[in-house]
Structures are given as C-alpha cells and as structure tokens.
UniProtKB/TrEMBL annotation:
<keyword id="KW-0677">Repeat</keyword>
<dbReference type="InterPro" id="IPR015943">
    <property type="entry name" value="WD40/YVTN_repeat-like_dom_sf"/>
</dbReference>
<feature type="repeat" description="WD">
    <location>
        <begin position="318"/>
        <end position="350"/>
    </location>
</feature>
<dbReference type="InterPro" id="IPR001680">
    <property type="entry name" value="WD40_rpt"/>
</dbReference>
<protein>
    <recommendedName>
        <fullName>WD repeat-containing protein 89</fullName>
    </recommendedName>
</protein>
<dbReference type="Pfam" id="PF00400">
    <property type="entry name" value="WD40"/>
</dbReference>
<feature type="repeat" description="WD">
    <location>
        <begin position="167"/>
        <end position="209"/>
    </location>
</feature>
<dbReference type="InterPro" id="IPR039328">
    <property type="entry name" value="WDR89"/>
</dbReference>
<keyword id="KW-0853">WD repeat</keyword>
<dbReference type="InterPro" id="IPR036322">
    <property type="entry name" value="WD40_repeat_dom_sf"/>
</dbReference>
C-alpha cells in the first residue's frame, strides 16, 4: 500500500483537454480496453449537454462527438473486445452504440426498451454478450432491461428488442448497474430505494437470479466490486455514506458487512480542505486495496483508503480543477488517472509528468471570489499517513 501511495504522490497533470465553446459538466469517463499488450487508444466522456466526446488517450486531442438530443445520455462504456465501440444509455428508452472508426455521427446500433422506459444507468458484461439498463420509476414500475449484445463488432444498424426484464427486486429508480469484472453472469444494481442487489443472470427467473440483497439505508449513487476474485460489493450514497459487503460470507455464519459509514465527510478531515462529496471507488488488484475518490467544491481530489478498521485519507491532488470533480477513470496498467469536472475540463494525471500548457488555469466555470482566495495552486499530492 505504501508503494501505491508513493505512485499517487508522484501524479502530476500531463495533459489538459482543449476547452470547447459550450460549458458542460463531464459526468462519466471510460477508456477503451487495450488490445493485447497495447495501451488504450481512446477516452470517451459523457457530458451534461447531451453529448459524448471522444479524445485521443495520450494527447487528449478531440476526435469525435455524438449527440442524443432531445434525450439525455447517462453513462459511457467501451466494449471489451473492440476498442472502437462505445455505448451510452439514453432517457428516450434506448441504449445507443457508436463506432469511432466511422465518419457518421449516427448510432450504428440501437437497443430499444419498452415504451415507458427512461434509462438512467447501464453496463455491458465482460464478454460483451449481455447489455443491461436500469430505468427511472414510472408509476409503480422499475425495470432492469436486458439485451443480447452479440454482433456489436459488425454493427448491423438495426434496433434490437429486449431479451426480458427484472421488475420485482427494486421499487425506485435504478441509479447504477455494474457487471462483475471477470464473471459475465454476475451483475449488481443499486437504487434510490437503498437496496444493492446481486444477480446471477444465468438463472431461469428473477427470484432464482437474486443472489443477495444488501441495504445501504440510503439512496445509492455508486456501486462496484472489490476484493480477491471480486467477491465483495461496495456502494456510496447520495448523502455521502459508504457501505462495503463480503458476498463470500453469504453461506456462512460470519456477518457480510465489512464497513458501514453513515457520512464519510465526518470521518475524513483534510487540513483546511474538507471533503465535500464522493465521486466513486476503485479496487487496486495488485495492492488488494479498495480506494474511494472524493473532492471539494474548489476542485481538489481526495484519495481515501478503505480497510475493515475504517477509512483514512491517503492524499490530495491539488491545482488541477477549479470546480467540483464529477468523474474519473484510473488506469491501473500505467497508473494514470483521468478526471473530469464542472469546469468542463478533462485532465490526464501521470506519475512525474510536467504540464507544458501555459493556459492551464483557464476555466469555463467562473470561480467565485471566495474560491479564488482559497484555491491551492500547486500540483503536488500532499501525503498524509493514517
């Protein structure tokens, strides 16, 4: 873990995206999955102006833009087996698929839901065979909708109808869906009803498919897998709570709850720079360690270590963003971090990097005079041991 902290301590801003004319929050980030031993080629960003922007992974040069107007895009994911295919769920009841290789700005494949569906979350499994999207609650109905995603690499262009739905396990908006990193049949869903459900979609029906139900006691904002063989599930809530469970203990007498923190902001106290919100989490395989990422309204990024004995601040990245960070993607292969925020900037952080741009403080979101007074301008990570 100390080695991981050292790597984080050396992170510096390597690249900064060129700002476009319009002001948009960067809500979600994903990098293309590398073929063989090559590095990722593309970064896709879901923006608050109903668009997906694609950048070169190394240079952050802008490459493509896809629009979902009048619908709203929710989330962005690359296919696992083809690094030019990118997906996003849409509020018009579809999941759209684009191919970066093509000049067209139209979706090359559309996965269509049922008439009342408004999709606010989605994911594709590790084998690219099954796509799943979660809906907002309409009247009394909330659905997990599934499609057969085979054929995306040759992009037939025709709309695909669902394979079926799960409709009994949640009773409010399904805010997050996350397939297991190595088991293509396992998926976890989180909802504003507070429930985090793990399903085995190989089972014949929803009742049999429901492996476990964990209650966060609050509206779920983020979920993920962690631990050896990814047997653990964790979530964050909209009121900045954190829950962590071990599903390997389901058939034992041991409690499955590893940690439950009602408000992470009260636990993590950074010097002169308190934690304001949580963004998400990441399990570091080599270190066998779960990390949370949070931030401040002035754009600083806190990295938080998780253990069964509690949470601890590992360090803070300063001097990059000038407003709240809304999304991140941490590439464990080369230890690089991508962050996006309400300042409409996409940043690439690399160990020991030197930023060459002289216009790096420009921001589309005008900082308040108070923010300008308190903002830290160095790009170092202030390490603090527990």
């Amino acid at each position: 873990v100390e080695k991981i902290e050292e790597q984080l301590a050396s992170l510096r801003i390597a690249k900064r995206s060129m700002l476009r004319e319009e002001c948009a929050y960067l809500l979600d980030i994903d990098v293309s999955k590398p073929a063989h031993s090559e590095s990722s080629r593309f970064v896709a960003v879901s923006c608050s102006n109903k668009s997906i922007k694609v950048y070169n992974r190394e240079t952050l040069n802008f490459l493509r833009e896809y629009s979902s107007c009048p619908g709203i895009l929710n989330g962005v994911r690359f296919a696992h087996t083809c690094d030019s295919i990118v997906f996003s769920a849409c509020s018009d009841g579809t999941v759209k698929c684009w191919d970066i290789r093509l000049a067209t700005e139209k979706a090359v494949q559309i996965f269509r839901g049922y008439p009342s569906n408004v999709f606010i979350s989605f994911d594709i499994n590790c084998s690219d065979l099954i796509l799943c999207a979660g809906t907002e609650k309409v009247e009394q109905d909330t659905f997990l909708v599934f499609w057969d995603a085979r054929g995306i690499t040759n992009c037939a262009g025709t709309a695909k109808e669902p394979l079926g739905v799960y409709s009994e396990s949640h009773n409010d908006d399904i805010t997050k869906i996350c397939f297991h990193p190595i088991e293509p049949n396992l998926v976890v869903s989180g909802s504003t009803d507070g429930l985090v459900n793990v399903f085995d979609i190989n089972k014949d029906n929803e009742d049999d498919a429901l492996v476990s139900t964990c209650n966060s006691d609050s509206s779920v904002s983020f979920i993920g897998w962690s631990g050896k063989d990814y047997k653990q599930v964790y979530c964050m809530t909209h009121d900045e709570g954190f829950c962590w469970w071990d599903t390997a203990q389901l058939d034992t007498e041991e409690p499955i709850t590893l940690l439950h923190v009602l408000d992470v902001r009260e636990v993590i106290c950074a010097e002169n720079d308190s934690l304001c919100y949580l963004v998400g989490g990441l399990y570091h395989e080599k270190a066998d360690k779960l990390f949370l990422i949070g931030g401040t309204s002035t754009g600083n990024i806190h990295l938080i270590g998780c253990g069964s004995d509690g949470l601890s601040l590992v360090g803070t990245l300063c001097g990059g963003h000038s407003a709240a960070v809304r999304s991140f993607c941490w590439n464990l292969t080369d230890e690089c971090l991508l962050t996006g925020g309400e300042d409409a900037q996409l940043l690439l952080w690399k160990p020991g990097a030197v930023e060459r741009s002289f216009a790096k403080k420009a921001s589309l979101k005008i900082a308040s005079s108070v923010q300008k007074r308190v903002r830290v301008h160095n790009s170092s990570l202030k390490s603090r041991k527990k």
